[in-house]
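notes to self, project folder thing:

trying the whole complex as one job this time. last attempt i did each chain seperately and stitching them together was a nightmare. two parts in total, labels are on each line so i dont mix them up again. if this works i'll redo the older ones the same way
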Amino acid sequence: MTPTIGVFDSGFGGLTVLRALIERIPQAQYAFLGDTARLPYGSKSRRTIARYAAQSARFLVEQQGAEFLVVACNTASALALDAIQAAVSVPVLGVIEPGATAARAASRTGDVLVIATDATVQSHAYSAACRAHGLRALEKACPLLVPLVEEGWVDHSVTAQVIEIYLNELRQEAAAQGMNPDTLLLGCTHYPLLRNLFEQAVRPGAKVIDSAEAAAQAAAQIFNGWLSPPGSSLPEAPPNAQLHFFATDSVEKFERLGSRFLHRPVGHVQLVDLGG
Amino acid sequence: MTPTIGVFDSGFGGLTVLRALIERIPQAQYAFLGDTARLPYGSKSRRTIARYAAQSARFLVEQQGAEFLVVACNTASALALDAIQAAVSVPVLGVIEPGATAARAASRTGDVLVIATDATVQSHAYSAACRAHGLRALEKACPLLVPLVEEGWVDHSVTAQVIEIYLNELRQEAAAQGMNPDTLLLGCTHYPLLRNLFEQAVRPGAKVIDSAEAAAQAAAQIFNGWLSPPGSSLPEAPPNAQLHFFATDSVEKFERLGSRFLHRPVGHVQLVDLGG
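result (full assembly):
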């Protein structure tokens, strides 16, 4: 029996996490839910995000039979991981802790810059996770980057300028606090599409860490152990991952833009009503 | 008895309409609702927008006693005016028709450029309203402008570049269709904050029309007639407008950013739950 991994996000940015998961766990089935009727979570309150995220989680577990959940939304991971874990009875993995773990492995100075949405930054979830790993983190909300990605300006001079402005502000603040950051942690699932621009914008030698990649890596460690317990034999031929997509609104936009994030056609997206 | 005018928007951009209304109808009471838990409407489907807008309208009429409604949201005006009018029994005014009327008065060539959100443009509501006034309209979605306004970059070189890029694309398309536009219609309540940049970006002699202003002017004609029927005497001293603010989420952000749109402190904003 092929296990089903449920992946959910406020929109389709989390498809960057799904893509990284498929690369690492190709033998699974995936049910991806984008809560597009209520996006963006990034500008909403903790109470509202927790309610929306719990509804999404229950849909994936109770109606789609997901046996694991990956919360591919930084804002929901930051503000509602507890609420999601309370809402369902399967293991739940967020993206914050894997991101902080990867930053710990990358940083020599122990000082990390984190960029994310407003709500993720205001939660200080990355700061707390980094501190638990002995890192100092300085966070900044970069609300223009998601719209720039969704406009398709992923290799555009305007986007490069916006990134330069945001990073300069962040570096000035870091210097004022006596920090010496050598790692930039991307705390939003849209940002991997701007990876080239970030690589060009950071100081020489600085590392860019992507929490989508980091979360997929952590999931692979957990799920591959579960799928192939020690002593068991691997499947004879790794089957192609089976993908099922759901969205609460704007299915057409999901189908049209999703392939940019997934690096393959999304195909059919089923509209669902979570009652919101 | 002072009448209550209900004004609603998906967020707080509609405060530009409220500001224009207060200038013209200072003797009214106002109840403003920002459906901030579910913004932005601009990227959502007609079905979803209609459901949200009808809930907001009923709140203002049934719970706040509004005797008129102004839909200070271009997307809701474009996609859900019928649904709102069906949901409540008071007169409802949207922003599309007044914007088209003002464009008709401004344009000599009869060719108009309209910029708005995705959903407003896809509805082609401005095109239809302009055509009914004998105008040809070319519409373009400019999804980066709302986030730029909310980031406070209202007088920023990046915003000027983005406007230049959008308007150049629009003018090239207009030229390809043999149009000779002399009027730019701002079809989103956030755009009045960028008015200076638009005035600098349009061709010399071209006019910039703001549908927030146009809607307030239309409302004043309707409501002032109702408030001061012919033969009646004006109130002795025009009282200050009384303002009540409601939001479905992010009250703090509303209070913090709202004053930029209203040009005065917003004060207390009451959180309401519309069940979404």
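what i see at first glance: Chain B has eleven helices and ten strands.
need to look closer tmrw
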